Amino acid sequence: MELTQEDVLQILRIMDESDYGELHLRMGELKLDINKNGHPGAIHQEQALQISEPGNVPEPVQEPVPPPPLDSASPKASETQEEADTAGLVPIKSPMMGTFYRSPKPGDPAFVEEGQVVDEETTICIIEVMKLFSTIHAEMKGRIVKICANDSELVEFDQVLFLIEPETDRKEG
Questions:
Q1: What is the DSSP string of 8-29?
Q2: Overall fold of domain 79-166
Q3: Residue 13 contacts by C-beta under 8 Å, 6 or more apart in sequence?
C-alpha cells in the first residue's frame, strides 16, 4: 500500500484533532513521524513532521497555513463565490474532523432534508471519528437551506456542513 499526499494530509488532520502528541507510522520502506510540539487541539502545528522514503531527505513542515481542502469542490474552495448567495444564512460548521453521516445507519432516512424546519434540539447529522459517533444538533430554530457536505465523506474541522435560514420573531406579509 502506498500513501498519497492526500493520505498524509488526512493523517495530519486527524492527528491535529486528537489529544496525542506523537505518531510513528511504518509501512514497508515508508516512515512517518509526527510530533505536534504544541497544545492539544491547536490547528495545524505539525512542527516536527518527518517523512522518510528511500532517496528522500526528511524535511520539517514549516507552513503556518492549513493544508489545502481534500478536493477543489469542497465548501472552503468556493467560499468567496458563495458568500453573496449565503447572505443572511447561518452556517453550521463541523466541530471536528471526521466522517459525515446524514442518517443514523445505511438505508435509514436522513436526519434532515433541504427545506426542513429545525429547532435547537433537532439532530442534523452524525460525525464519526475513530469509531466514536458524535450527534450534531441544529442549535437554532430555522430552515435548512443547503446541505453542504456529502454523506459518508470526510469533513474538516470548521467546514460548513449546513446553511440555515434563521427563524425570525416577526411575521412577514
A1: HHHHHHHHHHSS-SEEEEEETT
A2: OB fold (Dihydrolipoamide Acetyltransferase, E2P) (2.40.50)
A3: 67, 97, 156, 157
Cell 425570525 maps to which residue? 168
Show me where the domains of the chain are located: 5-52, 79-166
CB of 91 closer than 8 Å to CB of 160: yes
Q: Per residue in 123-152, pLDDT tens? A: 999 999 988 899 999 989 999 999 999 999
* Edge-to-edge strand list for the sheet holding 132-137: 132-137, 123-129, 98-101, 153-155
Cα(143)–Cα(137) distance, rounded to whole angstroms? 13
Instruction: Write the pLDDT tens digit of every residue in 61-114.
Output: 444 445 555 554 545 545 555 555 667 899 999 999 999 999 999 899 999 999
In degrees, rounded to 5, the angle at the alpha carbon of residue 73 between the alpha carbons of residues 12 and 142 is: 95
| Cβ–Cβ < 8 Å for 62, 48 | no
Distance separating alpha carbons of residues 31 and 25, to the nearest angstrom: 6
